[in-house]
UniProtKB/TrEMBL annotation:
PANTHER family: F-BOX DOMAIN CONTAINING PROTEIN, EXPRESSED, F-BOX DOMAIN-CONTAINING PROTEIN. The lineage of its organism: Eukaryota, Viridiplantae, Streptophyta, Embryophyta, Tracheophyta. It comes from the Eukaryota. This is F-box protein. Residues 16-53 form the F-box domain. It holds the Pfam family F-box-like. It comes from Rhynchospora pubera.
């Protein structure tokens, strides 16, 4: 500011928005909001936090609207249209600033798989079920807990494992996989795949935890899901170690479903001349957006359209058995 004039007034709204669009780090936008009251109002009124968030995290474009949750008995104030509009602008600014904070920090990442959805195939069920991949052992070798595909003549036949995360909104930073090592006589067998790829999204149909059975494998079909993110392919090493596959950036998983695609088979077993993939450990490391944010799939799941609603809980409350409690 010079001689009491505001730079935004001197540039005008269109040029000011263009200048702000060059900010690439969320912290820079936060700093701009504390320069002056007019700068803060400009950032909020023009939805610049949302614009930056959409640029850095394209998955947020899947949200069709915001559903604000308030505890029962909350008194709704009689506000003018302009006051309500400004309050909504401030709410959106808080939400997308909160999401932006996850994009610049990896603190608090934990293993966040809740349960298994299904596998494309299983060789010996239930002994070699996908559920074994959530029960890692210190040394994975013959006789340890693992999942195995069926054998295939064609090494190009892919396999896939699908998991449900513990929250319907979470930033995923990395996925870790350990292939099985089998020591038989004088030879080591490593049942890795050549490449891996990951898909994140939500189901078009309701999914509930259940005792896993072989018939659940149909649940992994792509047509039953909306994939909001598909990763590039990563090469997998032929090593019996927990291999880390870091995503190019923190990815917002909208819907809690993670599909691990195992592409290409490496090992042909001597006893039947078939190619197998065997995995003994899978971890998805991420950070939940609860208690402030959640997702509402009710319209999408029941086929009524309308997309995914972003649920905003400003009081940090969650609904449970028709009661409200602080989260």
């Amino acid at each position: 500011m010079e001689n009491g004039s505001d730079l935004l007034e001197w540039l005008g709204p269109d040029a000011s928005i263009r200048v702000f669009s060059y900010l690439e780090h969320p912290a820079d936008l936060v700093r701009a909001t504390v320069v002056s009251r007019s700068w803060r109002q400009f950032v909020i009124a023009n939805g610049l936090s949302k614009s930056l968030c959409t640029k850095l995290c394209p998955e947020v474009s899947y949200f069709s609207g915001i559903k604000e949750i308030t505890p029962p008995g909350t008194v709704q104030l009689d506000e003018s249209n302009s006051t309500t509009e400004w309050r909504n602008h401030e709410r959106d600014h808080k939400i997308y600033t909160y999401i932006n904070s996850f994009l610049v920090s990896t603190e608090g990442a934990t293993s966040c798989i809740s349960y298994c959805i299904g596998a494309s195939s299983t060789d010996h069920f239930p002994e070699e079920s996908i559920e074994n991949t959530l029960k890692p052992t210190e040394e994975a070798d013959w006789g340890s807990s693992y999942w195995s595909s069926v054998g295939e003549v064609d090494p190009a036949v892919p396999e896939s494992l699908m998991y449900m995360l513990n929250n319907d909104l979470a930033f995923v930073d990395e996925i870790m996989i350990r292939p099985l090592q089998e020591i038989f006589e004088i030879r080591d067998y490593i049942y890795s795949s050549k490449f891996v790829r990951f898909k994140l999204g939500h189901s078009k149909l309701p999914i509930t935890p259940a005792v896993f059975n072989l018939q659940q494998s149909h649940q992994i079909a792509d047509e039953n899901y909306v994939w909001t993110y598909i990763s590039p392919q990563y090469p997998m090493e032929e090593k019996n170690v927990l291999q880390s596959f870091k995503l190019p950036r923190p990815v917002l998983c909208i819907g809690a479903v993670v599909k691990v695609e195992l592409l290409g088979r490496v090992l042909k077993h001597d006893f039947d001349d078939l190619f197998y993939i065997c995995i003994c450990d899978v971890q998805v490391r991420g950070r939940t957006l609860l208690p402030l944010l959640a997702a509402d799939f009710s319209e999408t799941v029941h086929g009524h359209g309308g997309g995914v609603l972003l649920k905003y809980n400003p009081m940090g409350y969650v609904e449970s058995d028709q009661k409200w409690r602080p989260n």
